[in-house]
């Protein structure tokens, strides 16, 4: 059977978690469609989006799983931790409770995700005047966990792309380090490299 050619170098599976209402779906909407809405439609179970991005000249197909923050969906959403390569843990800078819950979310990650999963902490709604959690509080917590911290606004778009690209780059670099052959996952067998080189140059990504 002919092997289907991939038009990307890596598939990167990301999971977005955090309390209900912190803006997980909004971050994803901003990143994938560059849009925002003030209406709150709470996610039921799990949803996902695909977006291709070029990172360090590699075409990365991001498969981003948007989980429901509501407690009643916890059993369903936990099932998705295992397959995640990167996890974006989001709290709301205007909501103290969502910040306090970061520790519980971290425990969930430890118990359910792969030990080498890449993680970042995101304080969302940085545009809001109703701030309850300072930037330095977010930074300190991220430092305690030894992970990168971003303050974002899905409303204005501030640092949204930076956060997604940062975690994707770290996953990509890890995948490249872990690969036994040291070649790209989509690299064709040696004999066909020459024939496909031209195609590769003009292939579409992003
Ligand atoms: P669940 O699906 O229930 O887990 O919630 P969620 O985390 O997906 O929250 P969602 O993205 O649906 O956003 C909740 C509310 O916060 C919506 O009314 C959004 O408009 C608002 N919101 C999201 N991000 C921002 C932001 O960056 N700034 C401001 N001001 N509001 C935001
Ligand atoms: Mg949602």
UniProtKB/TrEMBL annotation:
The keyword Coiled coil does not apply. The keyword Membrane applies. PANTHER family: LD44762P (PTHR47980). It comes from Chloropicon primus. It is a lipid-anchor. Belongs to the small GTPase superfamily. Rab family. InterPro entries: P-loop_NTPase (IPR027417), Small_GTP-bd (IPR005225), Small_GTPase (IPR001806), Small_GTPase_Rab (IPR050305). PROSITE patterns: ARF, RAB, RAS, RHO. GO terms for cellular component: plasma membrane. SUPFAM superfamilies: P-loop containing nucleoside triphosphate hydrolases. This is Small rab-related GTPase. Pfam families: Ras. It is found in: Cell membrane. Keywords: Cell membrane, GTP-binding, Lipoprotein, Membrane, Nucleotide-binding, Prenylation. One of its GO terms (molecular function) is GTPase activity.
């Amino acid at each position: 059977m002919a092997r289907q050619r991939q038009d990307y170098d890596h598939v990167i599976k990301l999971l977005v978690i955090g309390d209900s209402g912190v803006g997980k779906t909004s971050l994803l909407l901003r990143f994938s469609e560059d849009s925002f809405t003030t209406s709150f439609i709470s996610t039921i179970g799990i949803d996902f989006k695909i977006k291709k991005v070029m990172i360090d000249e590699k075409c990365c197909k991001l498969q981003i799983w948007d989980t429901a923050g509501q407690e009643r969906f916890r059993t369903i959403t936990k099932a998705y931790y295992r397959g995640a390569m990167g996890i974006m843990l989001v709290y709301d800078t205007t909501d103290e409770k969502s910040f306090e819950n970061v520790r519980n979310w971290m425990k969930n990650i430890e118990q359910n995700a792969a030990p080498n999963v890449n993680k970042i902490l995101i304080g969302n709604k940085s545009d809001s005047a109703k701030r309850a959690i300072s930037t330095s509080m977010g930074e300190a917590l991220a430092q305690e966990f030894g992970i990168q911290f971003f303050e974002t606004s899905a409303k204005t778009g501030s640092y949204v792309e930076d956060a997604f690209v940062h975690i994707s780059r770290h996953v990509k670099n890890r995948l490249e380090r872990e690969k036994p052959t040291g070649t790209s996952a989509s690299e064709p067998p040696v004999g066909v490299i020459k024939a496909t080189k031209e195609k590769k140059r003009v292939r579409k990504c992003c």
